């Protein structure tokens, strides 16, 4: 068991006693302002952050990655790689290597190299593997090309033909048509069978701009039992503004993101799937992170056409439990220009172009058309509810 210094760049944040399997046994917070979960000075939040930073159990090919580095668990892999990530500037420095600096080990400059720091027992810390802190359930890896880092993400094999990867490109296409600039452009890698095997995007973070999730900004309070979506969103807006962002800009971004998610039926816009870019030195917010992670959308898990009655009863892992409750969060109903949205016919052609068969493309197109009708109703002030769809709305 060894002592590590949790650092943000070269700022000491906490002292942690970690065993060789990557488990934290005790700790002491040194700088609550720079703690990974903002607005909390509880050392236990650091323990939770470390646990969540590791690759989740159950990910495809996890065993291959662990075997490659001689580890038995994701947390041991995280420990061996000094907790480094390509999305932020947090890392753990072994106390016996206290002279190490962020410039010596960070992935932005050294990722893919093998510097080889050793622990007290002579075991190597790889220090620069880029994948030990790549979160999420889908199999993914960071790849360096032409001096830039890219994230390559596979689709869930439960859902055929790589539709989740195609959905990433489709959401990008909508933002292009809308003239919206703050989104992550995605491309795909196609297998020999013509399946969109991977979705590829360039990392939007850097050594001077780190990603802080909305979950971290609100201190993880979105998981409280008494969670209230509107109150939590207002808390988030307040912290964005106090961190240096313009309130009108914050609200406009949120309106667009929520409306886009509704139109594309994105079921996975939880509090870790959006956030801000932050200057790791001043701790001032730079901007929103561009909209990313749109794969769980466009009816990816529905083998049937979704009628309006089904669409108004959808639940999701997002800001609100019921999808139609997202609409209550939008202040500017016209934040998305309806006439610039792809038509159902264009959607069918798009998905067929990316390799889906005509039958499946028809299902997606028809479901999307029903969603467009609901969004048009919303923009024109028509009440959207199951009771209204069933003719029982008195």
Structure description:
The chain has helices spanning 43-53, 62-68, 74-80, 102-105, 107-110, 163-178, 214-217, 229-242, 247-264, 308-311, 344-353, 358-379, 386-389, and strands spanning 2-8, 11-18, 24-29, 90-94, 117-118, 124-125, 140-145, 148-154, 187-190, 196-202, 210-213, 275-278, 285-288. With 394 residues, it is α+β, with helices and mostly antiparallel strands. The strands form 4 sheets. A 4-stranded antiparallel sheet has the order 3-2-1-4, covered by helices on one side. A 4-stranded antiparallel sheet has the order 7-8-10-9, covered by helices on one side. The protein is globular and about 70 Å long. It starts with a strand and ends in a 5-residue tail after the last helix. The model has no long low-confidence stretch (mean pLDDT 89).
In short:
This protein is α+β, with helices and mostly antiparallel strands. It is built from 13 helices and 13 strands. Helices cover 32% and strands 17% of the residues.
Low-confidence stretches: none
- Nearest-angstrom radius of gyration? 22 Å
Strand content: 15-25%
Q: How far from one another are the termini?
A: 67 Å
Helix proportion of residues, in percent? Answer: 25-40%
Biggest sheet strand order reads: 3-2-1-4
Mean pLDDT: 89
SS element count, helices: 13
Task: Count all strands and give the number.
Answer: 13
- Most strands sheet: 4 strands, antiparallel
Which overall shape is indicated by the principal axes computed on the Cα atoms?
A: globular
What is the H/E string? EEEHHHEHHEEEEHEEEHHHEEHHHH
The chain-level structural class is alpha+beta
């Amino acid at each position: 068991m060894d002592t590590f210094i949790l650092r943000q760049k070269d700022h000491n944040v906490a002292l942690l006693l970690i065993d060789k399997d990557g488990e934290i046994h005790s700790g002491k917070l040194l700088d609550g302002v720079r703690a990974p979960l903002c607005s909390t000075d509880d050392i236990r939040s650091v323990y939770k952050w470390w646990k969540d930073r590791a690759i989740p159990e159950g990910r495809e090919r996890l065993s291959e990655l662990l075997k490659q580095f001689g580890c038995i668990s994701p947390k041991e892999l995280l420990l061996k790689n000094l907790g480094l990530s390509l999305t932020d500037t947090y890392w753990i420095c072994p106390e016996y290597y206290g002279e190490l600096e962020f410039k010596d080990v960070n992935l932005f400059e050294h990722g893919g190299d093998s510097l080889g720091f050793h622990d007290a027992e002579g075991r190597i810390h790889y220090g620069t593997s880029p994948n030990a802190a790549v979160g999420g359930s889908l199999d993914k890896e960071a790849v360096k090309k032409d001096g830039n880092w890219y994230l390559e993400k596979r689709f869930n094999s439960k859902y055929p033909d790589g539709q989740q990867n195609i959905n990433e490109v489709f959401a990008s296409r909508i933002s292009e048509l809308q003239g919206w600039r703050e989104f992550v452009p995605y491309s795909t890698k196609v297998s020999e069978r013509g399946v969109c095997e991977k979705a590829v995007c360039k990392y939007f973070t850097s050594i001077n701009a780190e990603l802080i999730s909305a979950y971290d900004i609100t201190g993880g309070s979105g998981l409280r039992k008494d969670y209230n979506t509107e109150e939590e969103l207002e808390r988030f807006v307040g912290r964005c503004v106090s961190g240096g962002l313009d309130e009108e800009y914050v609200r406009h971004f949120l309106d667009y993101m929520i409306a886009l998610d509704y139109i594309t039926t994105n079921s996975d816009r939880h509090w870790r799937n959006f956030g801000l870019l932050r200057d790791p030195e001043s701790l001032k917010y730079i901007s929103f992170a561009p909209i990313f992670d749109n794969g769980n959308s466009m009816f990816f898990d529905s083998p049937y056409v979704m009628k309006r009655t089904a669409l108004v009863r959808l639940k999701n892992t997002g800001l609100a439990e019921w999808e139609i409750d997202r609409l209550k969060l939008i202040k500017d109903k016209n934040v998305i220009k309806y006439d610039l949205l792809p038509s159902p016919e264009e959607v069918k052609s798009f998905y067929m172009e990316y390799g889906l068969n005509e039958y499946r493309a028809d299902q997606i197109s028809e479901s999307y058309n029903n969603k467009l009708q609901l969004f048009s109703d919303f923009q024109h002030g028509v009440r959207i509810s199951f009771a209204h769809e069933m003719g029982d709305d008195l």
